[in-house]
Structures are given as structure tokens and as C-alpha cells.
């Protein structure tokens, strides 16, 4: 069914949820409002992009955040060199447009890993998959 | 595909005025007036406006990378189809869309998009739409030059060439898994998008009204506060859509239009149905 999910060589499944303390450390904007449900995001490096530690690659993002602001934040977080670009991909297939919110990503392209839906984003410093 | 409908949608134009506020010694040049296809982008139209401004004799040339665009006091989105921008702009039908070209330092939330970037963004949108429809089966089977060709037919305003290629994306072997549809709730909020099927479990077609109603329902990730639509779960599609009009290509879309008809005939070239919500 979900061929696209299995397409890239992924030697290991999506990391199991870490204890809350580790999550908080990995999230750039610290989660203050407990009431708001955040979108679980897993980042995967492809090509020559800097690789994140396993803990650091799991983030919880506000649903109303857009790809435009997320990309700006992630340039610093992943430590992308100023001369390099940063591209994000979904399902190893396409790059979501700038106005796409994480609410849209989780509603349309979530991966059911265990009990919790998660958005996996592949990131690259060069255009991938056309 | 309904040829008449698709052709009319393609040929629909909107009036746009570009005004340069440069503060140069000769004052500002005359505005540039143009009629633009709804399917095109500000990213494609801006170079022509600048050429017109640069025709003046004071020798000051305005470069693309030195300007930004403003519409109704906010940065304009150069990568959203002009028809969608027009329908969102809260202007009277058939009045002019006024774009200010500014030479001041651009605000952080303005994104300059040149033709090459626009081409890439366009093709990524097509791939996303195809992922929703066929899990990307059609685009993955396409030859390397086919998507760029689709883009060229948009740049060159060539309906026949566009549809010769677009047919592959629209007339798929299997029914669409999900319909690529984006709903703009208004007030410059980002669009809503979800997994919307073509049919209900009983086999009847899902209508545009039902699809929009579902998209505007608060999801489990929506912010609980502030939104009026977050009233109890009994909120039906009718309540949410009460006294709201669904606009696409400047046309009020009847609620009962089958969504699959909209997908095949009212999609923009990026293969998404774009619907703007207008109050009253």
C-alpha cells in the first residue's frame, strides 16, 4: 500500500518516543502551553546535509506554524552554512509549499508510527527527487 | 474533462495595476496596467511591470532583487495563483487589484520569487497534488521533461499544450484517492488542506460544500480558542458554511457541485482546487 514510505533506505524505524525531558530539550520553542496539541515531527537528513542526533531529530511543532517560518528556524537549528540552501521533503516525494501549516502536514501526510501520528520530513541542502 | 468549462477558466483574466513608489528625482513613473490570466503568478508578471517602469529616461533601473510587493498593506505572495490572490483581496468584482512595488528594505515575511524558483514551486505542487490523487504514481512514471513542459505551457499561456500534458494527471486509471483542495478561510490565514475523498461510504459523490465543511471543522490539532467554528461538535457543515460563499475563479461555486467535477475542471494548473471563503 504505502510504497512511498518504504522507498528510501531507512535502516531503522522512526525512533520510539523519548521521555518528556528529552523532548523538551529537543524542541526549539519550549512548550509552555500544555493545552495546545503539537505536531510530532521527525527530521531525516539526506545527501550532504548535516545529520542530527537521534534525540535532536524529534521535534514538537505548533500546528499553526508554516513551512516558511519553520525553514527559517531550522537553518539555525540544523546549522546550515550560509551559502547552502535548505529543502524539506515529505514522503521522499515533494517539497511542501511555504504556506503549508503543520496542521495540514499532519492531516494529509501523517505516518502512523505506533500510536502517535508523526510527520516525517526529509531535509537536504541540494534539491532532491526532482 | 469538460472542454468548455476548462477553456473558460483558463481564459479568465483579472485587471492588475502595479505602482512603483521609488521616490526618485523625477517622481514615480506611471502605473503599469495589465490584464493577467487568473492561473499565472506575480512572479511571472513582475518582470514585465519593471520593464515598463525602466523605460523612463532618468537612467535609474529598478532591479528585481531590490523590490518587494505589497497588497492591502501586507506583503504579497508571489507564488500563489493571481486568481486566488484576487478572490481573497476583498475588492468589488471586476475592480483593479492594486500591487505596490516598493524599493524599501523588504519585511521578513516577504518572499521574493524569481521565475526559476516559481518553476520549482509549481512542479512541487503538482507532485504533491499527484501524491494525494495517486500516491505519485503518475508523476513518477513521467519523463524528465514532462513537468517542465507543463510549466512552459503556463508561462506561454498555451491551453492546448497544457491540457495535452495535464490530461495524464487528471484522467488516471484509478479514481483519485484524495482530492487536492485548498481552502482559504480569509483574513490572510494560511490555507486548510486535508484528506478529502471523492465519494462517501455509500458510493454517492462528496460535494464541494461537504468538502469545505470538513476542511473548516476544527481538527484535533486546531487551536482551541478564538475561532468561532470551535463551538461544540454538533456544528454541522451547514452551520459552518451558513451565509458564506465559496469562490473559485471569481465564481460562486454551488455547494452541491460534485467535488470530483471541481477537481477535474476547476483546478488551477498546479492541480489544486483553490476555494476562497467569502462572508455574506
TrEMBL record, chain A:
A GO term, aspect molecular function: Atg8-family ligase activity
One of the record's GO cellular component terms: autophagosome membrane
Gene3D superfamilies according to UniProt: Phosphatidylinositol 3-kinase Catalytic Subunit, Chain A, domain 1
Highest taxon of source: Eukaryota
Region (Disordered): 1-38
GO biological process: autophagosome assembly; autophagosome maturation; autophagy of mitochondrion; cellular response to toxic substance; determination of adult lifespan; glycophagy; piecemeal microautophagy of the nucleus; plasma membrane repair
UniProt keyword Magnesium present: no
Keywords for the protein's UniProt record, in alphabetical order: Autophagy, Isopeptide bond, Ubl conjugation pathway
A Pfam family per the record: APG12
Matches recorded under InterPro entries: Atg12, Ubiquitin-like_domsf
UniProt entry tagged with the keyword Transport: no
Listed PANTHER family: AUTOPHAGY PROTEIN 12, UBIQUITIN-LIKE PROTEIN ATG12
Family: Belongs to the ATG12 family.
Role description: Ubiquitin-like protein involved in autophagic vesicle formation.
The protein, known as: CBN-LGG-3 protein
Phylogenetic placement of the source organism: Eukaryota, Metazoa, Ecdysozoa, Nematoda, Chromadorea
From TrEMBL, chain B:
Low complexity bias spans: 218-237
Chain residue ranges for the region called Disordered: 217-237
Record domain Autophagy protein ATG5 alpha-helical bundle region: where: 116-172
Chief subcellular location: membrane
GO biological process, one term: piecemeal microautophagy of the nucleus
Superkingdom field: Eukaryota
Cell compartments where the protein resides: Preautophagosomal structure membrane
Gene Ontology MF terms in the entry: Atg8-family ligase activity
Key words of the record: Autophagy, Isopeptide bond, Membrane, Ubl conjugation
Membrane topology, record value: Peripheral membrane protein
Domain Autophagy protein ATG5 UblB, residue spans: 178-277
GO CC terms: Atg12-Atg5-Atg16 complex; autophagosome; mitochondria-associated endoplasmic reticulum membrane contact site; phagophore; phagophore assembly site membrane
Domain Autophagy protein ATG5 UblA stretches: 9-102
Function in brief: Involved in autophagic vesicle formation.
PANTHER family reported in the protein's UniProt record: AUTOPHAGY PROTEIN 5
Complexes and interactors: Conjugated with atg-12.
Family: Belongs to the ATG5 family.
Name listed for the protein in its UniProt record: Autophagy protein 5
Gene name of the record: Cbn-atg-5
Amino acid at each position: 500500500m504505502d510504497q512511498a514510505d518504504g522507498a528510501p533506505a531507512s535502516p531503522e524505524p522512526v525512533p520510539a518516543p523519548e521521555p518528556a525531558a528529552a523532548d523538551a530539550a529537543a524542541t526549539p520553542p519550549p512548550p509552555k502551553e500544555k493545552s495546545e496539541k503539537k505536531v510530532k515531527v521527525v527530521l531525516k537528513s539526506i545527501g550532504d546535509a548535516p545529520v542530527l542526533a537521534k534525540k535532536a531529530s524529534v521535534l514538537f511543532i505548533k500546528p499553526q506554524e508554516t513551512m516558511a517560518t519553520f525553514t527559517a528556524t531550522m537553518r539555525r537549528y540544523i546549522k546550515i552554512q550560509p551559502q547552502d540552501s535548505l529543502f524539506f521533503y515529505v514522503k521522499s516525494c515533494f517539497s511542501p509549499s511555504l504556506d503549508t501549516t503543520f496542521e495540514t502536514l499532519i492531516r494529509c501526510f501523517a505516518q502512523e508510527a505506533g500510536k502517535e501520528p508523526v510527520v516525517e520530513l526529509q531535509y537536504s541542502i541540494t534539491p532532491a527527487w526532482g | 474533462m469538460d472542454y468548455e468549462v476548462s477553456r473558460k477558466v483558463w481564459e479568465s483574466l483579472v485587471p492588475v495595476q502595479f505602482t512603483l513608489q521609488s521616490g526618485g528625482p523625477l517622481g514615480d513613473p506611471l502605473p503599469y496596467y495589465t490584464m493577467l490570466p487568473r492561473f499565472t503568478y506575480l512572479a511571472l508578471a513582475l518582470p514585465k511591470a519593471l520593464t515598463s517602469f525602466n523605460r523612463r529616461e532618468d537612467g535609474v533601473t529598478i532591479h528585481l532583487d531590490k523590490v518587494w510587493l505589497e497588497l492591502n498593506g501586507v506583503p504579497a505572495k508571489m507564488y500563489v495563483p493571481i486568481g486566488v490572490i484576487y478572490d481573497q483581496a476583498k475588492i468589488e468584482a471586476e475592480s483593479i487589484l492594486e500591487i505596490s512595488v516598493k524599493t524599501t528594505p523588504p519585511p521578513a515575511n516577504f518572499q521574493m520569487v524569481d521565475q526559476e524558483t516559481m518553476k520549482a514551486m509549481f512542479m512541487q505542487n503538482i507532485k504533491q497534488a499527484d501524491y494525494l490523487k495517486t500516491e505519485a504514481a503518475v508523476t513518477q512514471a513521467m519523463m524528465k521533461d514532462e513537468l517542465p513542459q507543463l510549466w512552459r505551457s503556463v508561462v506561454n499561456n498555451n491551453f492546448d499544450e497544457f491540457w495535452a500534458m495535464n490530461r495524464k494527471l487528471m484522467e488516471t486509471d484509478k479514481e483519485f484517492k484524495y482530492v487536492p483542495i485548498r481552502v482559504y478561510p480569509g483574513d490572510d490565514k494560511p490555507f486548510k488542506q486535508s484528506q478529502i475523498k471523492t465519494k462517501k461510504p455509500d458510493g454517492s459523490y462528496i460535494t464541494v460544500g461537504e468538502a469545505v465543511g470538513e476542511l473548516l471543522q476544527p481538527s484535533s490539532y486546531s487551536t482551541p480558542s478564538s475561532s468561532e467554528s470551535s463551538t461544540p461538535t454538533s456544528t454541522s457543515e451547514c452551520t459552518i458554511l451558513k451565509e458564506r460563499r465559496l469562490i473559485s475563479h471569481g465564481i460562486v461555486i454551488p455547494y452541491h457541485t460534485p467535488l470530483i467535477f471541481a477537481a477535474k475542471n476547476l483546478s488551477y494548473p498546479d492541480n489544486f482546487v483553490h476555494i476562497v471563503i467569502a462572508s455574506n
